[in-house]
Amino acid sequence: MSKIGVIGGGKVRISGLSATYRFARYCPKHHIRLYESSRSTGGWINTIKTTSGGLFETGPHSVRVATNLQSSAYALSLMTELGLEDDVIFRTAKDPAARFRFAMFDGEVTRLPYSLPSALLFNKLSIAEKLQMGLGLFKKQNHKRDVSLYDLIKETFGQKPADYFIDSMTRGIYATSSKNLTVPNTLAAVEKYFMTGIPAVNILKAIGSIDYTFPAKPFLEPYDPHLLNTAKSTKAKVWSLKNGLQDMIMKMTEVVQNADNSKIYLGTSAKLIRKHGSKLRIADSNGSEEIYDQIFASGNPKTLSCLLHPDDFPNELIELLAGFESTQVYVTLVELKNMVLPKSPGFGFLVPSCENPDILGVIYDSCNMPEHDGRGARYTIMSTRPHNELPNLVTDALGAIVEEVQVAWTHQIKGSNFKNVR
Ligand SMILES: Cc1cc2nc3c(=O)[nH]c(=O)nc-3n(C[C@H](O)[C@H](O)[C@H](O)COP(=O)(O)OP(=O)(O)OC[C@H]3O[C@@H](n4cnc5c(N)ncnc54)[C@H](O)[C@@H]3O)c2cc1C
Q: What is the C-alpha separation between 147 and 164, in angstroms, rounded?
């Protein structure tokens, strides 16, 4: 019998709450304790309902299927296990939400090329710029490890691809400009190729051939492949739940709360982790201390680095964890009164820094999950500064796609994304 401490009750694919849930459900001989600083489990997952009956996700909007990734396969198996199989909503490769992405070009929301012919017809690049991009594929890549992603792309493919394709993409994924990121931060699996003098086209091939094969025999039991098989046969790209992602949090929390071997300490932060002979000791924000055989920690690595006592843990480990930098992203949820989604259906649009340094992008929630609509079109605006510092945020973000912005409901939360600085 062993005692296990888990720090942080968040979850997207596999994290603190799902680890606790697994122990509670399948390992009755282990005692498990989950420390969660906030008053509820779920981490960034939180679904809220508007007065018109619409649903918004304040954190993750959907979960990627990526049928060859183990964590995605287990997340789908978990939905079956929790009795939520009939509530899973898939978005497939055919849906506009999966096919079309947009970016702001000269104040206009423009569909990004999604195939070679559409790239050749793309009217925001001149013939000379397209030629420069094509020739860039054969340019030998010999860069310093700390060159910024922006400079690397600009040098290889030209200024416009760096400004519009790469910068908008990193702002969408990492909530920061490509000028602040390097190849090791973003493409760690292929970073060595950027220093060996091979042409860019060979690196693209290497990226395409990264193998994440799902093992023939699942490493966790029970594993139910039914939803994954449905996802594969329908070419599903992402999924959510009929009543929002919060449902899976509630179901898992219920199992943990009803199990004899597990306890959730809500509103309780882990403050310090120390070695205790061959075991580990957690001191918490209520002044209590407990001894564990093992500890699982989820969430921000930088936070974890502050919990490890420097006398008991190697300095290299503490420094490595402290090196994960974070950046703030503000999320504003907007529902437009009695409106259906206007022109340009697709996932949403990204905004490069050269177009607007404050707005990162807009997600067309009504296109991605129409099942969550109430009486109005729903949008999520991501920004680098809060709503109250950007008085025209909603009109600046939505003005390019909606003629008259009549805001029926807005709600703002602060989120954070992490970039790995090594
Ligand atoms: C705005 C936004 C949108 C996103 N959209 C998507 C998306 O669409 N799809 C997707 O897959 N991912 C998305 N992500 C990323 C996703 O939210 C994270 O990858 C995920 O939340 C990480 O889960 P986690 O459990 O590791 O951490 P978290 O969800 O951050 O949970 C960590 C938990 O630990 C608790 N905690 C922290 N310190 C302590 C402590 N000392 N003691 C006790 N408890 C502590 C926190 O309160 C929190 O509940 C998004 C992120 C943001 C911010």
A: 19
Q: Which of 112, 212, 186, 104 is nearest to 417 (CA)?
A: 186
3-state SS class at 241: strand
Distance of alpha carbon 61 from alpha carbon 45, whole angstroms: 8
Residue nearest to atom 38 of ligand 1 (CA): 8
11 lines ligand 1 (CB under 6 A): yes
Quote ipTM for the complex: 0.94
pLDDT tens column, 342-366: 655 899 999 999 999 999 999 999 9
Is 413 in a helix, a strand, or coil? Answer: strand
Residue 43 in contact with ligand 1 by CB distance below 6 A: yes
pLDDT tens digits for 155-178? 999 999 999 999 999 999 899 999
Q: Under a CB-based contact definition with an 8 Å cutoff, are residues 52 and 336 in contact?
A: no
User: CA dist 46 to 55, 257, 413, Å?
Assistant: 10, 19, 11
Cα 398 from Cα 70, distance rounded (Å): 37
Helix, coil or strand: residue 83: coil
Residue 167, classed as helix, strand or coil, is helix
Closest atom of ligand 1 to CA, residue 417: 53
Class of domain 3-41+245-322: alpha beta
Distances (CA, A) of 173 to 170, 176, 267, 292, 362: 5, 8, 30, 36, 12
Give CA–CA dist 17/11, Å, rounded. 6
Other CB atoms within 10 A of residue 35 CB = 25
Q: Atom 33 (ligand 1): residue with closest C-alpha?
A: 8
Spell out the residues 6+ positions from residue 376 whose beta carbon is closer than 8 angstroms to its own. Answer: 50, 52, 54, 335, 336, 337, 338, 339, 408, 409
Contact at 8 Å (CB) between 367 and 342? no
Contact 202, 186 (CB under 8 A): no
